[in-house]
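Zinc-ribbon domain-containing protein, pasting as requested.
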Amino acid sequence: MRIFACPGCSRVVYYDNLSCLACGTELAYDRENVALVAVVGERYRAAGGVRRRCMNTIAGCNWLTADDEASECFSCLLTRSRPVEGEQNIFDWLAETSHAKRWLIFQLDELGLPIVSHRDKPNGGLAFDLDATTDDHRVMIGHMNGVITIDLSEAQDSHREALRVLLGEAYRTMLGHFRHEIGHYYWMTLVASDPARLEAFRERFGDERQDYGQALTAHYSGGVAAWQHDHISQYATTHPWEDFAETFAHYLHICGTLQSAGAFGLSMAGPGEELGARGSLTSHPTLTPQSAASVRDILAEWQPLALALNLVNRSLGKGDLYPFTIADPVVEKLEYVHRLVSGR
Ligand SMILES: [Zn+2]
Ligand SMILES: [Zn+2]
Ligand SMILES: [Zn+2]
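Structure tokens follow.
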């Protein structure tokens, strides 16, 4: 994430802010100009024309519309369906989930990844179906032909954490779900449509033509062998598609967090030369996915920082912020994603 300044008082404000807590300036995010701008009333006059506040402001959306005609912002317009509001918990879950979605869309924009909305392309365009699991209605998170289904009930921390423990996962967040599912979307739009990329994908991740249903059944019936030496997570072992989606999500985790660290000038000189073959433990993140020749350059900045962040978390009695280790074969998979995203 980038660092933003309040146009009223120049203090640092979060990307998510609806107003500046210091000076009270009403804020909104202008996607076209990648800026938090001051809004008076409902409208804002940008370089590209008049925009207005998204109608979902009440649910925390701080984006502007693309023009004066629209009532919802680009991110909200990607939502194809959602439950009828009414119950307070559904409203809260929608707000929380849409927040994670705006973080995703911001990052995709930063990476220059194409987003074709279902409104422009009904068959295969990107859409989000937001639905909530209830006692008699189970929602499966997933992707199908551009449509990403998200289970809103996972916006509830206690529920999502219970699932994480039940499934034996190291990490489970709403943003993580979005980053994983968008990986399936980009596999469909960038990999499947390109014979050379598809061939390179099969060499790296395996042949996706194996039966997907059987693979998932085998995964959930247990008995998975050791995975740490060639996958980023146990779930990635289920099928080459899942391996790709997990790796893609992981690439977004690393690049997004490094961007935040770099934006604040967070850098580490490290405790010295005696910490193994890597030499000094230093990190001065200034790389972007576009400027890094190889994912190895990104990881050289990331791994010391991840270690430090984990120790900071442990010092507060919390679990690791970054509960992963990256084996060499996973570096190769990340390299594949890096080339795909950076257009190399
Ligand atoms: Zn301010
Ligand atoms: Zn919106
Ligand atoms: Zn998946």
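Note for the archive: The chain has three domains: 4-73, 79-176, 194-344.
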